[in-house]
């Protein structure tokens, strides 16, 4: 918007009035005026009004996209002098200046029925002020962005009028994609079977850890990679789910790192055998926990010093070991009547609640005495403590000077037959946590329930084996001697299924007692979770006998390390117990 200044009014005849009128006449545009109205009256130029329409000033901004940007053209203003009467003869000339807030690109003066466009040249003072302001803004913005810009921009060129030229050249450094200079590693091929829940990413991670450990003792890199791949494949093949796989690979990693019992720092196998002497069960503990002892009068027989399982007076009446119901059996051991067995497979646990304690089954959280949550085709019984014939006893062996009696972990799986629980699988693990014997066993009597939930044995496993219990006893007698230390959890149950008499045992159920004392015992699953930080027996396919045996061996080694920290000085074993230095 343009601000116009009007001259002050002077009385007629005043010298200054004539001067002002002459200057105004020179600068004012020519408008057709009526003849009856003078152009100058009283020494003042007065805008003439037409009868039809008045003259007006139309200011329109030129479009900004008509071509290359040019500096704005400010209109040439007429400098008029303003005189104030209060100065009494002295005049003060004040130049009229336009506002800097707006920059019109063109001014057009339009009259009635005729429009005339007047081009204006830029004012030097306005151009200078605009250029200085823009230079200040550019300098401040360059200071703020100097730290973040990559390239460097040269100063802008300026024209003769002092305006910055819009055409500039920006020189920026070329961006280069930086790539890591790591050697490309060839990933090994990992085969994946259908139905397994172990992600390939996890398998590759543990395979890398296995390779790093194998490189420490293998002769070549290729040998280490092959060994690591084989170890991972073995762990993957025996793992039906992710949790089982993690447990197996952790145990394998510990073995590769040298944390196995046989390779403990400064502890040989003979020294380990001596350390385990203090954890052996005494004769009183063997009798109290129901371990079989040789019968004094009947060869091949065994005797139990705890209450032997005696049924009712009638020999054809049995008591179901799952639901507690009495049922009748024939001479062959089969049920006389077909009855469904409703039972709870979990144990009764007591927990603290608001207002007291409550007892519930761990399988379904039902109260004791409620109807079972599982259904079986018929009732079953234990029967191991009733049939105490066909037992064999380990005997002493003469060992060479460079041998020792041996340390083994043992675990067995059983199923229900017409005569009670019988052996269906046996696994033996040595001190290096390697399986030295593992086989399925065919029971002597007809199988009623495979007990797959706990044994992990299926009908197909038993159907493809022909090994019987006497053959297993012969093989175990070749492994064991009377001085061999057997490790297990509630090992009396396994020895009853094997019909084996052995007294040199370490029982983890006794080594880690229940806080309520005997006859309560902690489960192997809880012990492994508390002391080994491992999850075992978590598969829907049932227990794994090799996994249970390894867990028992690791629990005993944990106890040995804890005792070594309490008693720094190593206890020496007796000469009769140690066969080698």
TrEMBL record:
InterPro entries associated with the record: REX1-like_exo, REXO1-like_dom, REXO1/3/4-like, Ribonucl_H, RNaseH-like_sf, RNaseH_sf
Pfam families xrefs: EloA-BP1
Gene3D superfamilies according to UniProt: Ribonuclease H-like superfamily/Ribonuclease H
GO biological-process terms attached to the record: rRNA 3'-end processing
Region Disordered: start-end pairs: 133-162
GO molecular function: exonuclease activity; nucleic acid binding
Domain of life: Eukaryota
A single cellular component GO annotation: nucleus
Domain Exonuclease: 406-565
Alphabetical list of SUPFAM superfamilies matching this protein: Ribonuclease H-like
Record localization: Nucleus
Keywords assigned by UniProt, alphabetized: Exonuclease, Hydrolase, Nuclease, Nucleus
Family stated for the protein in its record: Belongs to the REXO1/REXO3 family.
Protein name: Exonuclease domain-containing protein
């Amino acid at each position: 918007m343009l601000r116009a200044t009007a001259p002050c009014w002077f009385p007629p005849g005043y010298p200054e009035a004539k001067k002002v009128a002459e200057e105004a006449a020179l600068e004012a545009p020519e408008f057709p005026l009526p003849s009856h109205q003078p152009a100058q009256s009283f020494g003042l130029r007065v805008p003439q009004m037409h009868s039809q329409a008045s003259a007006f000033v139309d200011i329109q901004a030129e479009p900004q996209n008509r071509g290359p940007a040019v500096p704005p053209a400010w209109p040439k203003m007429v400098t008029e002098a303003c005189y104030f009467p209060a100065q009494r003869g002295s005049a003060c000339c004040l130049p009229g200046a336009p506002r800097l807030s707006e920059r019109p690109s063109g001014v057009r003066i339009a009259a009635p029925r005729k429009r005339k466009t007047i081009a204006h040249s830029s004012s030097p003072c306005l151009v200078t002020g605009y250029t200085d302001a823009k230079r200040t803004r550019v300098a401040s913005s360059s200071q703020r962005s100097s730290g973040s810009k990559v390239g460097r921009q040269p100063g802008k060129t300026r024209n003769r009028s002092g305006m910055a030229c819009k055409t500039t050249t920006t020189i920026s450094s070329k961006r280069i994609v930086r790539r890591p200079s790591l050697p490309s590693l060839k990933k090994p091929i990992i085969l994946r079977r259908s139905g397994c829940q172990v992600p390939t990413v996890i398998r590759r991670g543990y395979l890398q850890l296995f390779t790093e450990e194998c490189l420490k003792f293998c002769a070549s890199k290729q040998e280490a990679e092959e060994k690591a791949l084989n170890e991972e494949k073995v762990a993957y093949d025996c793992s039906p789910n992710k949790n089982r796989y993690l447990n197996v690979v952790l145990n394998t990693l510990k073995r590769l790192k040298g944390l196995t019992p046989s390779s403990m720092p400064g502890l040989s196998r003979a020294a380990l055998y001596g350390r385990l002497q203090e954890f052996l069960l005494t004769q009183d503990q063997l009798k109290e926990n129901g371990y079989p002892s040789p019968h004094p009068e009947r060869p091949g027989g065994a005797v139990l010093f705890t209450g032997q399982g005696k049924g009712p007076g009638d020999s054809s009446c049995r008591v179901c070991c799952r639901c507690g119901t009495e049922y009748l059996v024939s001479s062959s051991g089969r049920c006389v009547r077909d009855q469904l067995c409703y039972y709870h497979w979990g144990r009764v646990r007591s927990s603290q609640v608001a207002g007291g304690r409550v007892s519930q089954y761990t399988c379904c959280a039902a109260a004791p005495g409620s109807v079972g949550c599982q259904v079986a085709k018929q009732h079953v019984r234990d029967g191991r403590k009733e049939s105490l014939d066909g037992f064999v006893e380990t005997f002493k062996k003469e060992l060479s000077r460079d041998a020792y009696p041996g340390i083994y972990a043992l675990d067995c799986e059983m199923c229900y037959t017409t005569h009670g629980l019988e052996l269906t699988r046996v696994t033996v693990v040595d001190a290096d946590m390697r399986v030295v014997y593992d086989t399925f066993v065919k029971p002597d009597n007809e199988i009623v329930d495979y007990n797959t939930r706990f044994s992990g044995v299926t009908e197909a496993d038993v159907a493809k084996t022909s090994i019987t219990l006497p053959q297993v006893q012969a093989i175990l007698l070749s492994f064991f001697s009377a001085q061999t230390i057997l490790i297990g959890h509630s090992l009396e149950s396994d020895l009853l299924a094997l019909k084996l008499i052995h007294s040199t045992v370490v029982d983890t159920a006794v080594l880690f007692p229940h806080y309520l004392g005997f006859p309560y015992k902690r489960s192997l699953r809880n012990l492994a979770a508390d002391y080994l930080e491992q999850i075992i027996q978590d598969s829907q396919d049932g227990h794994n006998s090799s996994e249970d045996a390894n867990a028992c061996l690791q629990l005993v080694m944990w106890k040995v390390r804890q005792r070594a920290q309490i008693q720094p000085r190593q206890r020496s074993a007796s000469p009769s117990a140690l066969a080698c230095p």
